[in-house]
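pasting for ref
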Amino acid sequence: MFFRAIERAGEFESSDVVRILADWLEERGDGARAEFLRLEMECERTPDWEPVKAGLRRRARELEWAHPTWLAAALPPVLQTAFELKKAQGMFQGLELVGQLGGWENPAEWDLLECGLETLSERMPIRTLALGAVIGQVDLDRLLSWSGWSGLVELEVVGISPRTWIRLAERLRRGLPRLTRLHLGRLNRIGPAGVHELLREAPPQTRGGPPQPSLLSRLRVLNLFGNRLGGAGLTAITHPKGASATVQAESLETLDLGFNNLKPADLRSLWSWEAAPRLRRLSLAQNPLQAEGGSGLLDAVWLEGLVELDLGGTRLPPKTLADLVASPRLKRLKCLRLSNLQLDAAVIEQVLAGIGGDPPPRLDLSSNYLDDDGLERLARWSGLARVVELNLSHNEFSPSGLKALADSPHTERLKVLRIADNRRLVTPRGLQGLVDSPLADRLTRLDVAAAPGMEEELKALLTRATLALRTSSRKDARLDLGTWSDHAGFWEDVDWFAEPAAEEEVDY
């Protein structure tokens, strides 16, 4: 059902969204459909043992039987679309359109979609838009022609073709002056040619006036994950030909270059990139940096300014990785991701020695080969005393290794622990050592994964930890007890591009 998808999408009451759409239907004269939505919402919220639930279900079924065309036509197109609304400062500010928009040939359907968007925008300012559809150029033109997008600050598009991207970039330059966060990841594959659209200057606002800034010059967040940029595409960003002030990345703070098959030779232009003075967060994940790339990174002109660095899956040799994390130029880091680097007990000891006693507060060691020996070495590491968030998901340690970590004298600041997808820990016995330790009382978030059929048993075991999380003074305290399929990896579980707090306000 529509509202169930909404409820799963965000941490807020689905009733808010259903109420908006039911009101809209009622305003358009479809009172029966509005009543049906409200009844379905109440059924979902009412416990099975409440006598009133039977009456709600009966009335909903009567409405459904009285309107057989509903099943054939479903909801109008605007309601067939799944909306994901993000709550920020007490107001819904985001909108996600998920579904196949292609093939909408009836102008009335587009008019209906626009009418629905107008109705929604009257009730909530739309600041973010995610186009989760495989959308063509014609459909994109019609969708973006709506005047309500002018206030967008964040846009995500998935699965567009290079030709559609060129058309989209033109729209962005002309009609979205406030856009500062652009996500073109998830295998859009715009390629090197598409990069030039980021650099192209917008036309003058008045005849004979100066060109307007390019997209790149006003973006704060740019996600190019999985776009097959190659060396040519990256060089086009870092050292554009005929560069002027309007095509420099002077506002860029977050850049995701993950999964672009960037080899050491391709990355040379990145190391010497001087046109991004505000760069603070960088992902090079899943690019084969190897030893040469790691050495080049040490000489990058912007390295000292980073507060977040993702090196997951970069094939860095142990010696190169140890030298890199030991660099005094990385002392400003608040988050370091070292997932999928084949770190075992021996290698992790080298890496921890390189990091020393002043590590980043957030440390990701997921998807490695850390066994009990590796956890014991981690537990003895004095730098652990400064770690606030630790991700050990998808490793190879047993309950013995977890207990060694839980009993470590260096975990007093640890607040967030992720141990999902460690197959030897999904039994009650596997987590007993953690539950019985003082660490469980200090955590504000514990991320584990339950094997199918074992969720309730684990919940019963974790009562003490759950109670500690719920009574914590921190607002974000919670226990995540998902299933194996819910925890594909750290990248999906964490919003890497979440708006960071001002650096001086971060409480570690």
